[in-house]
Amino acid sequence: MARAPHVIGVDGGSVDPGPYYLGAGVPFCSTMAIRRDLRLMLHAAIAARIPLMIGTSGGAGGAPHLELTAKLVREIAAEEALQFRLALIQAEPPRVELQRRLAAGRIRPLGKQPPLTAEALERASRVVGMMGPEPFMEALDNGAQVILAGRASDPAPWAAAAIRAQLPPAPAWYAGKMLECGATPSIPKGHDCLLVTVREDGVECEPMNPIRRCTPLSIANHSLHENSSPIHHIEPGGMLDTSDCRFEALSDRAVRISGMRWRPAAQYTAKLEGVEFAGYRCISICGTRDPLLIARLPLFLEEVRGIVHEKAAAFGAAPESYSLIIRTYGLDGVMGAREPEQQVAGHEVGFVIEVIAETPEIAAAVLGIARTNMLHTDFLGRLCREGNMAFPFSPSDIPVGPVYRFSIHHVLELDHPCEIFPITYENI
Amino acid sequence: MPSIRELARICKSKNAGPFDLTIDIVFDDVALYQKVRASGVISEVLFARLYGVAVDDVLLTPYDAAMAIKATFPRLVPAGGIGDTDVYGCQQHAPLLDVEIPF
Question: What does the radius of gyration of chain A's CA atoms come to, in whole angstroms?
């Protein structure tokens, strides 16, 4: 804070941990960890009289994620006697509103997604819109010092601060791109703070932890992060073109990036992210150290699958009512069908047995049969007559809860960048 | 012949959204980067072969500013979907490491 920044920003989430957190409405990080970070940032921002802006609060940026983060902020403020104006920006539009816009032809698929249907929209467990910088700017204009937002484009909080300070959109967005993962654009990789200075013609990045350094290579690496194209970054309201960027070392720990361009879009769009319920999962973890079994693995697993289908059908679980997946670590557990190595090279093999079914009861019942048959199914040449698998836990079967899948990956055309992101204010 | 693991400074995979995987190979020497590019080995055809996708589904973008080559193509299963093996998509780079570059 001795460097006197003008804003503290956080990108609080992502779709990256998968569809569960958006679907279930729970955070990806623990409330203990979120509370620790919020406390540090609230103290620093209030003492320095600068804004604290958090995008994609609570990990997925839905209404429950935003409410959880707001609750933690209110509790910390009460405990520490901090005073500020708080803005909450919602990003989970009412479903009827989205249906109305779908009917008006204003929702388009992204990539290879099929067009959205009213049924898929209805079926979704939760749908969020991804805001750009404009709602943050509106909240700042209305005097908010602490801004908690639902789903937001990762760079949006910082882009908002820089654009509102009359800086051009290209370096403003680029600054956000560098800041969205904290100190990640530095080496050694770690999770703390990055200071970015935005200028008319570029940005300067420097990690605040003295053990880290930004180098042209570490910045170049981060410029490639999680985008399908390294040169065209589609954002709400336009495209950040980085094809002519230059990376220059300013010192042995700071890098200057220049040459970025912003191309405004003819139509402002907000991405929609939605997930739908896909069943209940139950898993069991086990491993084998038996070279005779490892040598016959494909046949053995095929036989186990056959027995499970037969026995599950006998208690009323038809094969189409569940999915049975046996993951083989030591063979293709990491790459699945894309694994080029077809032989086990090691002396032991690990398994995750997984069943996903319409109800938790069916998932647990089928998993139980699968676990028993992994343990006891015979194979040619078997010497280990007492059991094939080492199970590390009792109970061996672990209900994992609901499973979701990404079902909406579309864009919504907006007439005004703030129109589906309502803001409420509180004096704390 | 040297392989990518010997020539590159970074070789990594990651999700680019829930439906695509993106792979980056980054160099720290402009002459080396230009030689690797000129070899033509790192192509749409290479990724199609290594990852079992159609050549037309591979978006290959050299990025001179970063001395990097990026390839993006569809995931086998959407991130976190039933049967996915790698929610973050961050362990799909290994088949590239032993690709040899003829100089």
Answer: 25
Residue contact A335–B52, C-beta within 8 A: no
Contact A220 B52 (CB under 8 A): no
Q: What is the pLDDT of residue A88?
A: 98
Among the partner residues B63, B81, B85, nearest to A231 by beta-carbon distance: B63
pTM of the model as a whole:
0.94
Mean pLDDT of chain B: 96
Structure-block tokens of residue B87 = 């929610």
Give rounded-to-5 percent helix, strand, coil for chain A. Answer: 30, 30, 40
Question: Hey, is A112 helix, strand or coil?
Answer: coil
Do residues A168 and A182 make contact, with C-beta atoms less than 8 angstroms apart?
no
Rounded distance, CA A79 to CA A34, Å?
Answer: 16
**ipTM reported for the complex, 2 dp:** 0.95
| DSSP structural state of residue A143 | T
The position carrying tokens 């800041």 is A179
Name the percent of chain B in helix, strand, coil, to the closest 5.
Answer: 30, 25, 45
Instruction: Identify the pLDDT of residue A94.
Output: 97
Cα A107 to Cα A87: distance, rounded to the nearest angstrom:
28
Using an 8 Å CB-CB cutoff, list chain B residues near A404: 80
Q: How far is CA A306 from CA A299, A303, A320, A374, in A?
A: 11, 5, 14, 12
* CA gap A182, B44 in Å, rounded: 33
Helix axes A297-314, A360-376, angle to 10 degrees: 140
According to the model, what pLDDT value does residue A221 have? 85
The Cα diameter of chain A in Å comes to: 76
Residues contacting B23, CB < 8 A, separation 6+: B11, B12, B13, B47, B70, B71, B72, B92, B93, B96
- Report how far residue A154's alpha carbon sits from residue A178's, in angstroms, rounded to the nearest whole number: 10
Confidence of residue B77 (pLDDT cuts 50, 70, 90): very high
Provide the pLDDT for residue B13.
Answer: 97
Contacts for B35-39 with beta carbons within 8 Å, 24 or more apart?
Answer: B35/B101, B35/B103, B36/B7, B36/B69, B36/B101, B37/B62, B37/B69, B39/B101, B39/B102, B39/B103
Q: What is the mean pLDDT of each run of 10 residues along chain A (428 residues)?
A: 96 94 96 96 97 97 98 97 98 98 97 95 98 98 98 98 97 96 91 95 96 92 87 94 94 95 96 98 98 96 97 95 97 97 95 97 98 96 95 97 97 97 97
Q: What is the pLDDT of residue A227?
A: 87
| A259/B contact by beta carbon, under 8 A | yes
> Between β-strands A269-288 and A246-249, what pairing exists: parallel, antiparallel or unpaired?
unpaired
Question: Do residue B85 and residue A18 have CB atoms under 8 angstroms apart?
Answer: no
pLDDT at A225 (0 to 100): 86
CB within 8 Å: B68 and A404: no
